[in-house]
Amino acid sequence: MAKAKLMDFDKALEMFEPVLGFEVHVELSTKTKMFSAAPNFFGGDPNTNITPTCLGLPGSLPVVNEQAIRYSISLGLALGCSIAPTSRFARKNYFYPDTPKNYQISQYDEPIAFEGEVEIELADGRSFTIPIERAHMEEDAGKLTHVGGSTGRIQGADYSLVDYNRAGVPLVEIVTKPIFGAAADAPELAKAYVATIRDIVVALGISDARMERGNLRCDANVSLRPHGQEKLGTRTETKNVNSLRSVERAVRYEIQRQAAILADGGTITQETRHWHEDTGTTSPGRPKSDADDYRYFPEPDLLPVVPAPELIEELRAALPEKPAERRRRLKADWGFSDLEFQDVVNSGLLVEITETVAAGAAPQSARKWWTGEVARLANIKNVEPAELVTAAQIAELQQLVDEGALNDRLARQVLEFVIAGEGSPRDIVATKGLAVVSDDGALIAAIDEALLAQPDVLEKIRDGKVQAAGAVIGAVMKAMGGTADAGRVRELVLERAKQV
Amino acid sequence: MSDISAETVRHLAGLARIDLTDSEIEHLTGELRQIVDVVASVSEVATPDVPATSHPIPLENVFRADVVGDVLTTEQALASAPEHDGSRFKVSAILGEEQ
Fold it and tell me: One matching Pfam family, short form (chain B) (predicted)?
């Protein structure tokens, strides 16, 4: 495939105004699927969490999961939407083996939530309001694995294997209105929007929201129009964007790609495009065509959803703080500087630090662990920091430091053992004997030995050149295998120099 | 008279990935037209004060508690599959994309 021509990003923005739109799919973390009592879990062996309804077998009928309705209403409210007094399911008809019924149960002209807005914040602290058109409920599709061909992609595949464990998992699709005025912030805004949706659903406790696992998926619509033109340009819809970083890159790429085509006098094809993480490019999927004729009609197997006003108010009252409000409150509570706080927000560690503080650690200590050593190790292992340790473990580790049982170096060592799954910090300190040696007797013996081994240094210390003590402290720390408290060693070295 | 044309039937067959001959299309056009006309006769009896509905029984909010129930075994799930690999359904590679 020929490499697409790209225009310099700044130049593209001089010539064109980008208009964005997003469709974010959120998988709800209910215990069961949207329309059947099958477990909502698709990590296991293929085709093990399915019922006749998931397979669309003759005679099977869908029944709506009440918890999924509650979650969807909560999400709608958190997005500032109105909740429809009556909403209805509809069949979206299409023929593809990822859905065994040849239709997906979704919502069409009567979604459960509509007309809202979400405040997002860019890295430099500026905020932006994203208009929400609707949030509707639907079911996820099965997973296809294409076999044969050279690339594992659908082109050239010999056949496909289907696992329906994911079929019927409850989804809410959040659709924005066109977003204007993002200009050069468009890529960052895209990332911040998806991150905010993630924060909202995590705060609501309605989704695991792990992008790498597909719990949260984003389709990014991008179009360009010359400055001053009212008519919207032709848009493309980039799918398969499954990390925050990819969302940002994909939007930037599409702006650059479309600008190059338009500047050359070409036209944009309205199409689905696929994001490729490895090359950082998009490639054309299918063009919008007859296949998009979904012939929606009301789902005759399901009845309208008419949420009681009391239920809506109950769920509204239970809403967590909005992410932007929460950020403002936490920053004040923790007393972080602007820079420290932005660093936390940008690294996506707000939740982890909040939990660590709740588990008893001082905010600054919690921040240092998560944005420092844990983030560093996560980066090396190419995983999310929260996959390595829990907030409770970090709080316990910090408590050991506060008690004086661990120095910084030992604490980092204990952290590595915790990550390796060897137990809680306190257990590891006990079993590995990693605690700081507070028994002065053992220290004094090591210090005396080190001082006598370096008579010239001893002489200098006695002459009042205390900086010379460094060499002895180093030798003692080494002799103690790093388990000594360096401050205490220093005190004792100066004391012993007068006595040996 | 409904507006089911041969073109409509061809289009629907295309969406459903069913290959139809011209004579089949002609035959189905007649049948579908008749079915739609019969259904359309409902609107002759329905007066303007009868609201449209998607369901014959005026019920709403029929829900299920979020409690896990029985599932099929993989063997049961695959029992009627024309082809499978022991754990997954095997289908011919179809051009197109996941929706």
Answer: GatC
**CB pair distance less than 8 Å for B96 and A286:** yes
The predicted-structure confidence for A33-81, as pLDDT tens digits, reads as follows 999 999 998 778 999 999 999 999 999 999 999 999 999 999 999 999 9
A 125-164 → B contacts, CB under 8 A: 141, 144-146, 148-149, 154, 157-164
Contact A145, A153 (CB under 8 A): no
Distance from CA of A322 to the nearest CA of B (A): 27
**What 8-state DSSP symbol labels residue A32?**
B
**Mean pLDDT on A213-220:** 93
Residue A301, chain B, CB below 8 Å: the answer is no
Chain A nearest-CA residue for B54: A298
Last residue of a domain, one of A432, A460, A482: A432
Name the residue range of residue A392's domain.
321-432
Residues A130 and A227 in one domain: yes
Query: What range does the domain containing B9 cover?
Result: 1-38
**Facing residue for B66 by CB, picked from A30, A157, A285:** A30
Report yes or no on whether pTM surpasses 0.90: no
In Å, how far are A22, A201, A208 from A194, measured between CA atoms? 9, 11, 14
Q: Which helix (H) or strand (E) holds A203?
A: helix A186-204
Reported as a single tens digit per residue, the pLDDT across A88-104 is: 999 999 888 899 999 99
Domain count, chain A: 3
Q: Do B91 and A65 touch (CB under 8 A)?
A: no
* Domains held by chain B: number: 1
Between A31, A47, A159, which is nearest B67 by CB? A31
Phi/psi of residue A285, nearest 5 degrees? -100, -130
Q: Which residues lie below 8 Å from residue A67, measured CB to CB, with a gap of 6+?
A: A28, A30, A31, B65, B66
